[in-house]
Amino acid sequence: MIVTPKILARLAAIVVGGVLLQLSFFSRVELFHVSPDVLPALVVALGLLGGTLTGAIAGFAVGFLVSSLLVEPLGATSLVLLGAGYLAGLFRERFDLHGSLAAPLLCMGLTLFAELGFVAVQFLLGIDAPVSALIARDIVLKSVYAFFLGWPIYLGVRRVLRPALVEEPRVRRSRRPTVLGT
Amino acid sequence: MYRKQVRRRRAVLALLIISSFALLTFTYGQSSDGLQRTVSAAFSPLQTVADRALKPARDLVNWFDETFDARGENERLTAELETAREQAVAGKAAVQENAQLRKLLRVDGTGVLALAGYKQVTGRVIARSPTVLYSSVTIDIGEDDGIRVDDPVISGDGLVGRIASVSGGSSQVTLLTDHASAVSAKVVPQGVQGLIRPELGDPEDLVLDFIDSSRKVGVGDAVVTLGQRARGLASLFPPNLPIGEVTKAPIDEQVASQQVHLRPYADIANLDFVQVLTGGSRQ
């Protein structure tokens, strides 16, 4: 990814817009009693398109912003999301992204990683409350939602960052054949 | 060239990880509150706009979810109606007791809050935490509206939580279902006292812990705030605010773990408007 000030501004807008959309919309809707969490999928999309560095920095920024806006302990969400972004970037750098299912599957897998990681970090920091088995349902359903939301998020982010993407395949336009001698 | 890139990438990653741990250390050292309040205040107008703009879309998605639930809800309500009929037939004494409980449980109908000097300020929920471990919401009223840290927060149905942090135009509410939440409460009419803690991952289940196991608590009993005041220390919550209804009270659990389960009256997962009780006799 070629990062210019304009692209940086677009990245910042994606991060801020994504966080606001999560807190004002996705966190407040429920499907089967579970709210979708699109932030890991957003970070994964940025990692897939921009590489490890972009993914990790975006993950850190998203985590920092969410924790600041909700006045939650800083650092925990950043740590987990930067890991998800870095892994997505690593996937992009090590393997070619083949097939239309690669992005949503990676969004699902890394959302699972992020949710489990977040729970693990919180438990390491100490939680003095009983835990319901329903937390497992929450994590699994969030990952499933990430699969379905991952593809539109990936496409949306790719569209916004298109000018910066060096490996973006050219759009082939159908062209009328030139007929000579008429 | 490639090696240099790899080194730079690793250095940035290490820096980010160290920064995360540093932020965690600052948070637990209570040094980050000012920074978070500044960021929160800066984004508060944007959150309000986003909340209002996205409300129709939110309502649409929630409508689908509620439709799925409607069938089960119908059966549950039918069963509840049947139980209520039986109770009504049971006699005037039960009806009278019921009326007394209702009177006790009315949030402000009894004037309890007014007597204690509380002022109710209504706010709109503009953001919600995406994780189940942190159960908190952001509301669009803050210091400018007279809101202070630790003010109790209620909905039309009962206690919701307390103010955790305040900035000029917005506040963060720690809900009853947050892992850091603990509210002293009592079961009425028995008067059994305990501490309400969340069951993480299930917003419809709270635990009333440390109860006196020699006194029996039954399913359907109401739980209200204790609002105790002793030796100059006062509870954060006024007394007799409705919290929830006992849903599970097996004798063995009461004896062995000294706890019962309850469902909060307030629909904590779907809050739109809340009221903050400001002022009051709490010191």
Spatial gap, N to C terminus of chain B? 65 Å
Name the beta content range of chain B: 25-35%
Number of H/I helices of chain B: 5
| Quaternary structure classification | heterodimer
CATH class of chain A: Mainly Alpha
CATH architecture of chain A: Orthogonal Bundle
Helix proportion of chain A: 55-70%
State the secondary-structure class of chain B. alpha+beta
The overall average pLDDT of chain A, rounded, is 86
SSE topology:
The complex is a heterodimer of chains A (182) and B (283).
Chain A: H1 5-24, H2 39-50, H3 52-70, H4 76-94, H5 102-125, H6 134-160
Chain B: H1 2-28, H2 33-89, H3 92-105, H4 112-115, E1 118-128, E2 136-139, E3 152-154, E4 159-166, E5 171-175, E6 183-188, E7 192-198, E8 206-209, E9 222-225, E10 229-230, E11 233-234, E12 242-248, H5 251-256, E13 260-264, E14 273-279
Antiparallel strand pairs in B: 1-2, 1-14, 2-5, 3-4, 3-14, 4-5, 6-7, 6-9, 7-8, 8-13, 9-12, 10-11, 12-13
Characterise the protein shown here.
The complex is a heterodimer of chains A (182) and B (283). With 182 residues, chain A is mainly α. Chain A has a single domain (5-164), classed as Arp2/3 complex 21 kDa subunit ARPC3 (Orthogonal Bundle). Chain A has helices at residues 5-24, 39-50, 52-70, 76-94, 102-125, 134-160. The longest helix of chain A is centred in the C-terminal third of the chain and has 27 residues, at 134-160. The radius of gyration of chain A is 19 Å and the shape is globular. Chain B has one domain. Helix content of chain B is 38%, strand content 27%. Chain B has helices at 2-28, 33-89, 92-105, 112-115, 251-256, and strands at residues 118-128, 136-139, 152-154, 159-166, 171-175, 183-188, 192-198, 206-209, 222-225, 229-230, 233-234, 242-248, 260-264, 273-279. In chain B, the strands form 3 sheets. Chain B has a 6-stranded antiparallel barrel with strand order 1-2-5-4-3-14. A 6-stranded antiparallel beta barrel of chain B has the order 6-7-8-13-12-9. In chain B, strand 1 (118-128) and strand 2 (136-139) form a beta hairpin. The radius of gyration of chain B is 22 Å and the shape is globular. The mean pLDDT of chain B is 80.
